[in-house]
Design brief:
Shape: elongated
Strand order of the largest sheet: 2-3-8-5-7-6
Number of strands: 12
Number of domains: 2
Number of helices: 16
Distance between the termini: 33 Å
Radius of gyration: 31 Å
Order of helices and strands: HHEHEEHEEHEEHEHEHEHHHHEHEHHH
Length: 409
Protein backbone atom coordinates (compact mmCIF):
# COMPACT_ATOMS: atom_id res chain seq x y z
CA UNK A 1 0.00 0.00 0.00
CA UNK A 2 2.89 2.34 0.78
CA UNK A 3 4.25 1.82 -2.74
CA UNK A 4 0.87 2.78 -4.25
CA UNK A 5 0.61 5.90 -2.08
CA UNK A 6 4.11 6.97 -3.04
CA UNK A 7 3.39 6.41 -6.74
CA UNK A 8 0.19 8.49 -6.59
CA UNK A 9 1.97 11.24 -4.65
CA UNK A 10 4.79 11.37 -7.18
CA UNK A 11 2.39 11.68 -10.08
CA UNK A 12 0.56 14.50 -8.32
CA UNK A 13 3.80 16.30 -7.50
CA UNK A 14 4.76 16.47 -11.16
CA UNK A 15 1.21 17.14 -12.32
CA UNK A 16 2.06 19.04 -15.52
CA UNK A 17 4.40 16.30 -16.71
CA UNK A 18 1.84 13.63 -15.77
CA UNK A 19 -0.96 15.39 -17.63
CA UNK A 20 1.17 15.81 -20.75
CA UNK A 21 2.04 12.10 -20.72
CA UNK A 22 -1.60 11.12 -20.17
CA UNK A 23 -2.65 13.40 -23.01
CA UNK A 24 -0.11 11.86 -25.38
CA UNK A 25 -1.18 8.33 -24.43
CA UNK A 26 -4.87 9.17 -24.80
CA UNK A 27 -4.40 10.88 -28.17
CA UNK A 28 -2.32 7.97 -29.44
CA UNK A 29 -4.98 5.45 -28.45
CA UNK A 30 -7.80 7.60 -29.85
CA UNK A 31 -5.94 7.97 -33.15
CA UNK A 32 -5.38 4.21 -33.30
CA UNK A 33 -9.08 3.55 -32.62
CA UNK A 34 -10.09 5.98 -35.34
CA UNK A 35 -7.68 4.46 -37.88
CA UNK A 36 -8.65 0.87 -37.12
CA UNK A 37 -12.38 1.67 -36.98
CA UNK A 38 -12.35 3.37 -40.38
CA UNK A 39 -10.06 0.67 -41.76
CA UNK A 40 -12.33 -2.16 -40.63
CA UNK A 41 -15.40 -0.28 -41.84
CA UNK A 42 -13.77 0.30 -45.23
CA UNK A 43 -12.78 -3.36 -45.53
CA UNK A 44 -16.29 -4.54 -44.65
CA UNK A 45 -17.75 -2.13 -47.22
CA UNK A 46 -15.35 -3.35 -49.90
CA UNK A 47 -16.03 -6.99 -49.09
CA UNK A 48 -19.82 -6.64 -49.06
CA UNK A 49 -19.83 -4.64 -52.31
CA UNK A 50 -17.42 -7.07 -53.93
CA UNK A 51 -19.51 -10.05 -52.87
CA UNK A 52 -22.70 -8.39 -54.10
CA UNK A 53 -21.11 -8.00 -57.55
CA UNK A 54 -19.47 -11.40 -57.34
CA UNK A 55 -20.48 -14.79 -56.09
CA UNK A 56 -21.54 -14.25 -52.50
CA UNK A 57 -19.90 -15.25 -49.23
CA UNK A 58 -19.98 -18.86 -50.36
CA UNK A 59 -20.15 -20.12 -53.94
CA UNK A 60 -21.56 -23.47 -54.99
CA UNK A 61 -20.40 -24.37 -58.49
CA UNK A 62 -19.27 -27.31 -60.66
CA UNK A 63 -15.95 -28.95 -59.81
CA UNK A 64 -12.93 -27.18 -61.32
CA UNK A 65 -15.07 -24.30 -62.64
CA UNK A 66 -12.88 -21.80 -60.77
CA UNK A 67 -9.75 -23.05 -62.54
CA UNK A 68 -11.38 -23.31 -66.01
CA UNK A 69 -14.57 -21.23 -66.27
CA UNK A 70 -16.75 -22.56 -69.09
CA UNK A 71 -20.43 -22.57 -69.97
CA UNK A 72 -19.94 -26.29 -70.58
CA UNK A 73 -19.61 -26.75 -66.79
CA UNK A 74 -22.89 -26.21 -64.98
CA UNK A 75 -25.04 -27.52 -62.14
CA UNK A 76 -27.96 -29.60 -63.44
CA UNK A 77 -29.97 -30.60 -60.34
CA UNK A 78 -30.26 -27.61 -58.03
CA UNK A 79 -33.46 -28.46 -56.12
CA UNK A 80 -31.59 -30.60 -53.59
CA UNK A 81 -28.94 -27.88 -53.16
CA UNK A 82 -31.63 -25.29 -52.46
CA UNK A 83 -33.11 -27.51 -49.72
CA UNK A 84 -29.68 -27.79 -48.05
CA UNK A 85 -29.13 -24.03 -48.30
CA UNK A 86 -32.52 -23.26 -46.73
CA UNK A 87 -31.67 -25.51 -43.76
CA UNK A 88 -28.80 -23.23 -42.69
CA UNK A 89 -30.04 -20.45 -40.34
CA UNK A 90 -27.03 -18.17 -40.96
CA UNK A 91 -27.77 -18.02 -44.69
CA UNK A 92 -29.92 -15.00 -45.49
CA UNK A 93 -30.51 -15.63 -49.19
CA UNK A 94 -29.08 -17.38 -52.24
CA UNK A 95 -29.21 -16.44 -55.91
CA UNK A 96 -29.05 -18.67 -59.00
CA UNK A 97 -26.46 -17.34 -61.41
CA UNK A 98 -25.03 -17.88 -64.86
CA UNK A 99 -21.66 -16.22 -65.39
CA UNK A 100 -19.55 -16.15 -68.48
CA UNK A 101 -17.62 -14.09 -70.97
CA UNK A 102 -18.53 -13.03 -74.48
CA UNK A 103 -18.48 -10.28 -77.05
CA UNK A 104 -21.02 -7.45 -77.15
CA UNK A 105 -21.29 -5.70 -80.50
CA UNK A 106 -22.99 -2.70 -82.03
CA UNK A 107 -22.51 -0.55 -85.12
CA UNK A 108 -19.68 1.23 -83.25
CA UNK A 109 -17.65 -1.97 -82.73
CA UNK A 110 -17.30 -4.83 -80.24
CA UNK A 111 -16.10 -5.20 -76.66
CA UNK A 112 -15.32 -8.20 -74.48
CA UNK A 113 -17.68 -8.43 -71.50
CA UNK A 114 -18.49 -10.47 -68.43
CA UNK A 115 -22.19 -11.34 -68.35
CA UNK A 116 -24.20 -12.38 -65.30
CA UNK A 117 -27.57 -14.03 -65.69
CA UNK A 118 -29.87 -13.19 -62.76
CA UNK A 119 -33.46 -13.50 -61.62
CA UNK A 120 -34.53 -9.95 -60.65
CA UNK A 121 -37.67 -11.38 -59.06
CA UNK A 122 -35.62 -12.50 -56.06
CA UNK A 123 -35.43 -9.64 -53.57
CA UNK A 124 -32.09 -7.88 -53.31
CA UNK A 125 -30.63 -9.34 -56.49
CA UNK A 126 -28.33 -6.92 -58.30
CA UNK A 127 -28.56 -4.32 -55.51
CA UNK A 128 -25.26 -2.62 -56.43
CA UNK A 129 -26.45 -2.11 -60.01
CA UNK A 130 -29.95 -1.11 -58.87
CA UNK A 131 -28.66 1.73 -56.74
CA UNK A 132 -26.26 2.82 -59.52
CA UNK A 133 -28.81 3.20 -62.33
CA UNK A 134 -28.43 6.46 -64.23
CA UNK A 135 -30.56 5.74 -67.32
CA UNK A 136 -33.50 3.48 -67.99
CA UNK A 137 -34.69 1.09 -65.30
CA UNK A 138 -33.67 -2.10 -63.54
CA UNK A 139 -35.70 -5.03 -64.96
CA UNK A 140 -38.07 -7.12 -62.85
CA UNK A 141 -38.24 -10.29 -64.94
CA UNK A 142 -35.79 -13.15 -65.61
CA UNK A 143 -37.21 -13.51 -69.15
CA UNK A 144 -36.95 -11.41 -72.30
CA UNK A 145 -33.96 -10.15 -74.25
CA UNK A 146 -32.96 -7.20 -72.09
CA UNK A 147 -29.49 -6.19 -70.95
CA UNK A 148 -28.17 -3.73 -68.37
CA UNK A 149 -24.71 -2.28 -69.07
CA UNK A 150 -22.24 0.16 -67.53
CA UNK A 151 -21.91 3.77 -68.67
CA UNK A 152 -18.36 3.29 -69.96
CA UNK A 153 -19.40 0.31 -72.10
CA UNK A 154 -22.40 2.25 -73.39
CA UNK A 155 -20.08 5.07 -74.44
CA UNK A 156 -17.63 2.69 -76.16
CA UNK A 157 -20.39 0.98 -78.16
CA UNK A 158 -22.49 4.12 -78.59
CA UNK A 159 -25.46 2.44 -76.93
CA UNK A 160 -28.43 4.11 -75.28
CA UNK A 161 -31.52 2.82 -73.56
CA UNK A 162 -33.76 1.12 -76.12
CA UNK A 163 -31.02 0.41 -78.65
CA UNK A 164 -30.14 -3.12 -79.75
CA UNK A 165 -26.86 -4.98 -79.33
CA UNK A 166 -25.61 -8.45 -80.24
CA UNK A 167 -24.14 -10.91 -77.74
CA UNK A 168 -21.76 -13.55 -79.14
CA UNK A 169 -20.86 -16.44 -76.83
CA UNK A 170 -19.83 -20.06 -76.77
CA UNK A 171 -22.73 -22.27 -75.67
CA UNK A 172 -22.59 -25.36 -73.43
CA UNK A 173 -21.84 -27.59 -76.43
CA UNK A 174 -18.85 -25.48 -77.45
CA UNK A 175 -20.59 -23.87 -80.44
CA UNK A 176 -20.47 -20.12 -81.16
CA UNK A 177 -23.92 -18.56 -80.97
CA UNK A 178 -25.33 -15.04 -81.07
CA UNK A 179 -28.45 -13.34 -79.75
CA UNK A 180 -30.00 -9.91 -79.98
CA UNK A 181 -30.58 -7.89 -76.82
CA UNK A 182 -32.13 -4.49 -76.14
CA UNK A 183 -30.55 -2.11 -73.63
CA UNK A 184 -32.91 -1.79 -70.68
CA UNK A 185 -30.77 0.35 -68.42
CA UNK A 186 -27.34 1.91 -67.90
CA UNK A 187 -25.55 2.08 -64.53
CA UNK A 188 -22.58 4.01 -63.17
CA UNK A 189 -20.75 2.29 -60.31
CA UNK A 190 -17.77 4.64 -60.13
CA UNK A 191 -15.35 1.88 -61.13
CA UNK A 192 -14.20 2.24 -64.77
CA UNK A 193 -13.31 -1.45 -65.02
CA UNK A 194 -16.70 -2.63 -63.75
CA UNK A 195 -18.58 -0.10 -65.91
CA UNK A 196 -16.71 -1.35 -68.97
CA UNK A 197 -17.12 -5.13 -68.67
CA UNK A 198 -19.89 -5.98 -66.20
CA UNK A 199 -23.35 -6.65 -67.70
CA UNK A 200 -26.59 -8.16 -66.42
CA UNK A 201 -28.95 -10.32 -68.47
CA UNK A 202 -32.07 -12.44 -67.78
CA UNK A 203 -31.31 -15.88 -66.33
CA UNK A 204 -33.88 -17.89 -68.31
CA UNK A 205 -32.94 -16.28 -71.61
CA UNK A 206 -29.29 -17.15 -71.09
CA UNK A 207 -30.23 -20.74 -70.18
CA UNK A 208 -31.96 -21.04 -73.56
CA UNK A 209 -29.20 -19.37 -75.56
CA UNK A 210 -26.46 -21.45 -73.92
CA UNK A 211 -28.42 -24.70 -74.08
CA UNK A 212 -28.28 -25.32 -70.33
CA UNK A 213 -31.91 -26.27 -69.75
CA UNK A 214 -32.46 -25.36 -66.09
CA UNK A 215 -28.72 -25.45 -65.33
CA UNK A 216 -26.66 -22.86 -63.48
CA UNK A 217 -22.97 -22.09 -63.41
CA UNK A 218 -23.22 -21.26 -59.70
CA UNK A 219 -25.35 -20.50 -56.69
CA UNK A 220 -24.29 -17.40 -54.77
CA UNK A 221 -24.88 -17.79 -51.03
CA UNK A 222 -25.11 -14.70 -48.81
CA UNK A 223 -24.76 -14.62 -45.02
CA UNK A 224 -25.66 -12.01 -42.46
CA UNK A 225 -21.98 -11.43 -41.64
CA UNK A 226 -18.92 -12.35 -43.71
CA UNK A 227 -17.08 -13.52 -40.57
CA UNK A 228 -19.51 -16.45 -40.31
CA UNK A 229 -18.25 -17.83 -43.63
CA UNK A 230 -15.84 -20.38 -42.19
CA UNK A 231 -18.39 -22.12 -39.93
CA UNK A 232 -21.17 -22.25 -42.54
CA UNK A 233 -18.73 -23.41 -45.22
CA UNK A 234 -17.65 -26.34 -43.05
CA UNK A 235 -21.25 -27.50 -42.56
CA UNK A 236 -22.18 -27.10 -46.23
CA UNK A 237 -19.21 -29.19 -47.32
CA UNK A 238 -20.43 -31.98 -45.04
CA UNK A 239 -24.02 -31.81 -46.30
CA UNK A 240 -22.98 -31.54 -49.98
CA UNK A 241 -20.61 -34.52 -50.32
CA UNK A 242 -20.89 -34.69 -54.13
CA UNK A 243 -17.34 -34.60 -55.50
CA UNK A 244 -18.62 -33.00 -58.71
CA UNK A 245 -19.59 -29.87 -56.79
CA UNK A 246 -17.20 -27.32 -55.25
CA UNK A 247 -18.26 -25.31 -52.20
CA UNK A 248 -15.87 -22.37 -51.96
CA UNK A 249 -15.46 -19.33 -49.67
CA UNK A 250 -15.29 -15.86 -51.15
CA UNK A 251 -11.58 -15.70 -50.30
CA UNK A 252 -10.89 -18.33 -52.97
CA UNK A 253 -13.37 -17.09 -55.56
CA UNK A 254 -12.30 -13.44 -55.24
CA UNK A 255 -8.63 -13.83 -54.37
CA UNK A 256 -7.74 -10.31 -55.59
CA UNK A 257 -10.13 -8.77 -53.08
CA UNK A 258 -8.85 -11.08 -50.32
CA UNK A 259 -5.22 -10.16 -51.01
CA UNK A 260 -5.98 -6.44 -51.02
CA UNK A 261 -7.79 -6.62 -47.67
CA UNK A 262 -4.95 -8.64 -46.10
CA UNK A 263 -2.30 -6.24 -47.43
CA UNK A 264 -4.22 -3.13 -46.41
CA UNK A 265 -4.83 -4.62 -42.97
CA UNK A 266 -1.09 -5.22 -42.61
CA UNK A 267 -0.36 -1.57 -43.43
CA UNK A 268 -3.02 -0.59 -40.90
CA UNK A 269 -1.31 -2.61 -38.20
CA UNK A 270 2.03 -1.04 -39.15
CA UNK A 271 0.52 2.45 -38.81
CA UNK A 272 -0.98 1.41 -35.46
CA UNK A 273 2.40 0.08 -34.29
CA UNK A 274 4.17 3.30 -35.25
CA UNK A 275 1.66 5.32 -33.23
CA UNK A 276 2.15 3.06 -30.20
CA UNK A 277 5.95 3.26 -30.47
CA UNK A 278 5.81 7.07 -30.54
CA UNK A 279 3.52 7.10 -27.49
CA UNK A 280 5.71 4.56 -25.67
CA UNK A 281 8.88 6.58 -26.30
CA UNK A 282 7.11 9.61 -24.84
CA UNK A 283 6.22 7.61 -21.73
CA UNK A 284 9.77 6.26 -21.45
CA UNK A 285 11.19 9.78 -21.67
CA UNK A 286 8.78 11.07 -19.02
CA UNK A 287 9.40 8.25 -16.53
CA UNK A 288 13.17 8.34 -17.08
CA UNK A 289 13.28 12.11 -16.51
CA UNK A 290 11.17 11.65 -13.39
CA UNK A 291 13.62 9.06 -12.06
CA UNK A 292 16.65 11.26 -12.79
CA UNK A 293 15.01 14.30 -11.17
CA UNK A 294 14.26 12.23 -8.05
CA UNK A 295 17.61 10.48 -7.81
CA UNK A 296 18.47 12.15 -4.49
CA UNK A 297 15.01 11.44 -3.10
CA UNK A 298 15.23 7.75 -4.12
CA UNK A 299 18.67 7.55 -2.49
CA UNK A 300 17.26 8.89 0.79
CA UNK A 301 14.37 6.39 0.69
CA UNK A 302 16.83 3.53 0.19
CA UNK A 303 19.08 4.89 2.94
CA UNK A 304 16.19 4.78 5.46
CA UNK A 305 15.34 1.20 4.60
CA UNK A 306 13.37 0.99 1.34
CA UNK A 307 14.47 -2.10 -0.54
CA UNK A 308 15.44 -2.03 -4.25
CA UNK A 309 12.42 -4.23 -5.04
CA UNK A 310 10.08 -1.65 -3.48
CA UNK A 311 11.69 1.13 -5.53
CA UNK A 312 11.24 -0.94 -8.70
CA UNK A 313 7.56 -1.59 -7.85
CA UNK A 314 6.99 2.11 -7.10
CA UNK A 315 8.24 3.21 -10.54
CA UNK A 316 6.30 0.44 -12.27
CA UNK A 317 3.21 1.46 -10.32
CA UNK A 318 3.58 5.04 -11.57
CA UNK A 319 3.90 3.78 -15.14
CA UNK A 320 0.90 1.47 -14.66
CA UNK A 321 -1.25 4.30 -13.37
CA UNK A 322 -0.28 6.42 -16.39
CA UNK A 323 -1.10 3.49 -18.69
CA UNK A 324 -4.50 2.79 -17.12
CA UNK A 325 -5.60 6.43 -16.85
CA UNK A 326 -4.32 7.20 -20.37
CA UNK A 327 -6.15 4.15 -21.74
CA UNK A 328 -9.41 5.16 -20.07
CA UNK A 329 -9.14 8.71 -21.40
CA UNK A 330 -8.12 7.41 -24.84
CA UNK A 331 -11.04 4.99 -24.93
CA UNK A 332 -13.53 7.75 -24.12
CA UNK A 333 -12.09 10.07 -26.76
CA UNK A 334 -11.57 7.32 -29.34
CA UNK A 335 -15.04 5.86 -28.91
CA UNK A 336 -16.55 9.31 -29.29
CA UNK A 337 -14.69 9.73 -32.61
CA UNK A 338 -15.72 6.21 -33.66
CA UNK A 339 -19.38 6.90 -32.81
CA UNK A 340 -19.36 10.04 -34.92
CA UNK A 341 -17.89 8.32 -37.97
CA UNK A 342 -20.10 5.26 -37.41
CA UNK A 343 -23.23 7.43 -37.66
CA UNK A 344 -22.18 10.34 -39.89
CA UNK A 345 -19.46 8.68 -41.95
CA UNK A 346 -16.32 10.17 -43.48
CA UNK A 347 -17.09 11.58 -46.92
CA UNK A 348 -14.13 11.18 -49.30
CA UNK A 349 -16.04 11.86 -52.49
CA UNK A 350 -14.01 14.94 -53.40
CA UNK A 351 -10.75 12.94 -53.11
CA UNK A 352 -11.74 9.72 -54.83
CA UNK A 353 -13.18 10.23 -58.32
CA UNK A 354 -13.40 7.08 -60.45
CA UNK A 355 -11.61 4.19 -58.76
CA UNK A 356 -11.13 0.59 -59.83
CA UNK A 357 -9.84 -1.48 -56.94
CA UNK A 358 -9.72 -5.26 -56.41
CA UNK A 359 -12.83 -5.84 -58.52
CA UNK A 360 -15.17 -4.04 -56.17
CA UNK A 361 -17.08 -0.77 -55.83
CA UNK A 362 -15.73 1.81 -53.36
CA UNK A 363 -18.40 3.89 -51.65
CA UNK A 364 -17.35 7.53 -51.20
CA UNK A 365 -18.55 7.58 -47.57
CA UNK A 366 -16.63 5.44 -45.07
CA UNK A 367 -18.34 4.33 -41.85
CA UNK A 368 -16.35 3.29 -38.81
CA UNK A 369 -16.83 -0.24 -37.52
CA UNK A 370 -15.37 -1.31 -34.20
CA UNK A 371 -15.84 -4.79 -32.77
CA UNK A 372 -15.46 -5.35 -28.98
CA UNK A 373 -12.49 -7.66 -29.65
CA UNK A 374 -10.73 -4.83 -31.50
CA UNK A 375 -11.29 -2.40 -28.61
CA UNK A 376 -9.94 -4.94 -26.13
CA UNK A 377 -6.96 -5.53 -28.40
CA UNK A 378 -6.11 -1.81 -28.62
CA UNK A 379 -6.51 -1.26 -24.87
CA UNK A 380 -4.33 -4.28 -24.06
CA UNK A 381 -1.55 -3.19 -26.42
CA UNK A 382 -1.54 0.38 -25.07
CA UNK A 383 -1.35 -0.79 -21.45
CA UNK A 384 1.30 -3.45 -22.07
CA UNK A 385 3.53 -1.22 -24.21
CA UNK A 386 3.23 1.69 -21.78
CA UNK A 387 4.05 -0.45 -18.74
CA UNK A 388 6.97 -2.07 -20.58
CA UNK A 389 8.46 1.40 -21.09
CA UNK A 390 8.70 1.76 -17.32
CA UNK A 391 10.85 -1.33 -16.84
CA UNK A 392 14.19 0.29 -17.72
CA UNK A 393 13.70 3.41 -15.54
CA UNK A 394 12.43 1.19 -12.70
CA UNK A 395 15.47 -1.10 -12.88
CA UNK A 396 17.76 1.94 -13.09
CA UNK A 397 16.11 3.49 -10.03
CA UNK A 398 16.33 0.23 -8.03
CA UNK A 399 20.10 0.11 -8.62
CA UNK A 400 20.67 3.59 -7.21
CA UNK A 401 23.49 3.77 -4.67
CA UNK A 402 22.22 5.78 -1.68
CA UNK A 403 25.62 7.38 -0.90
CA UNK A 404 26.21 8.52 -4.49
CA UNK A 405 22.60 9.73 -4.88
CA UNK A 406 22.78 11.91 -1.75
CA UNK A 407 26.05 13.55 -2.65
CA UNK A 408 25.65 17.22 -3.43
CA UNK A 409 26.80 18.24 -6.96
Amino acid sequence: MMVVNLAVRNLRRYLRRTLLTLTGTALGMALAMMAIGLGDGGHDMMIENGLALGQGHITIQPQNYLQSPSTGLFLTDVSGLNDIIRSEPEIEISYPRIRGEGMLSSAAGGEGITFVGIDPGIGGEGKIVQRSMVEGEFPNSSEGNWIVIGRKLAKLLNLKVGRKTVLTVQDSAGEITSALFRVKGIFYSGSPEIDRVYTIMPLKTLQEILGMGNGLTSIAVYLGEHRETKAVLKRLRKTIPDERIDVLPWQEVQSELRDFVVLDDAFGYLYYLIIMIIVSIGVLNTVLMSVMDRKREIGILMAVGMKPGSVLRMILMETSLIAILGTIAGFILGYGIHFYFATQGLNLESFMGDISLAGTVIDPVYYSKMRPARILQICSVVILMTISMGIYPAVKASRTEPVEAMEKP
